[in-house]
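Amino Acid Chain and Its Fold in Token Form
===========================================
Scope: a single protein chain, as residues and as a discrete description of its fold.
Amino acid sequence: labelled as such and written in the usual single-letter residue code.
Position: the record begins directly beneath this header, with no further notes in between.
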Amino acid sequence: MKTIWIVRKHPPHPYTGIWTRIGHLEAFTIHGQYRNRVEAKEAADNKNNKRSNYLYSVYGLKVKEFT
């Protein structure tokens, strides 16, 4: 098993209430794929520092290597 790191782009959060916040974090598109967590974290931090309505987060995925 190999781990790849993705940067997830969450949509704007126009909702209020506890249950809609959970749905906001579950909805995302993949912004980028990186080999290590440091690169992914740096990319997400750069995007989060800019004025944007989107939230960028880092997530590790375990994938199986095919030979």
Remarks:
- The two ends are 12 Å apart (CA to CA).
